[in-house]
Amino acid sequence: MTERLEGRWALVTGASSGLGAEFARQLASLGSSLVLVARREEALTALASDLKARFGVGVLVESADLASEGEPERIASSLEARGLACSILVNNAGFGAYGTFDSIDPKSEAGMIDLDIKAVARMTRLFVPRMRAEGWGRILLTASIGAYSPTPLYATYCAAKAFVLSYGIAIREELKGTGISLTVLSPGVTRTEFHAVAGHESNPWKRATMMEPEPVVRAALKGLFRGKAEVVPGLSNKLMALSTRFISRPVQAGFAALMMRPTH
Does residue 107 form part of some domain? Predict the structure, then answer.
């Protein structure tokens, strides 16, 4: 990747760990200054110190729960008050919950919908106008390989990520000619905290296909700066996404149920 980003600011959500932290590191290595957004302020502050020391970039920490009403707007107002314009938005924050649809805690499910769907839409709407005015912007939305298929035991999570995929590709089309490009990343199983949070640490499928964050983010940023619509890292994930074009949704759900079953 040869793209250099000196003089630009990138906002990364879910930046305290996993893919979000790796996005921050790789963007900083390209010269971008960063706004790091997540709930865990201590982790963000530690990451910010590391990035400043290693790459000499500007880093601003914004501790926020984007699932809470008004938090996306607060962040946008805070940056506007500083006169800071983010021309790169990495909408990465999200979490999943594993289990039968009627056994998942209702508050957890509502929070997942608020973060994985509503916050993605709000953050995108809030930061696009400044990009339009500047005539340049890059937006990356993190979906999931589960966005391509109905997935039992992750029913709400994968449906939420299907929204992200559909929403992203649709508004990408609307943004043509504005200088703003949007890319949807759909990773498969990745070694992050996601699995512990979801309550589904491991099974044979996860162990066989798990990727590290670094190559997932490298592929995502390569696709973002080349203007690709979709990025699906990993051969097995690419084949899964492709297969959904030829298999009925009920059959997809049956296969997904086998892959997501718990290990006893």
Answer: yes
Residue 26: both structure tokens together: 């790789």
- Opening angle at CA 62, ends 164 and 188, nearest 5: 30
pLDDT computed for residue 194 by the predictor: 60
Q: Residue 169: in which H helix or E strand, if any?
A: helix 155-174
Q: CA 64 → CA 74, 134, 200, distances in Å?
A: 9, 27, 26
pLDDT by residue (tens digit) across 114-134?
999 999 999 999 999 999 999
What does the DSSP assignment read for 6-56?
TT-EEEEESTTSHHHHHHHHHHHHTT-EEEEEES-HHHHHHHHHHHHHHH-
The tens digit of pLDDT for each residue in 217-255 reads 999 999 999 999 999 998 888 888 888 888 888 888 887
What are 253's strand-pairing partners? Answer: none
- Taking residues 44-70, what's their average pLDDT? 95
Beta 137-142 vs 33-38: how paired, if at all?
unpaired
> Looking at the predicted structure, is the pLDDT value of residue 195 above 70?
no
Q: Whole-angstrom Cα distance, residue 112 to residue 217? A: 23
CA distance 118 to 204: 33
8 Å CB contact between 179 and 135: yes
What is the percent of the chain with per-residue pLDDT over 90, rounded to a whole number?
73
Looking up residue 74, the CATH number of its domain turns out to be 3.40.50.720
Does pTM top 0.85 for this prediction?
A: yes
Domain interval for residue 29 = 9-260
- pLDDT, position 159: 95
Active-site positions? 157, 161
* Number of domains present in the structure of the chain: 1
CA–CA distance, 53 with 214 (Å, rounded to integer): 20
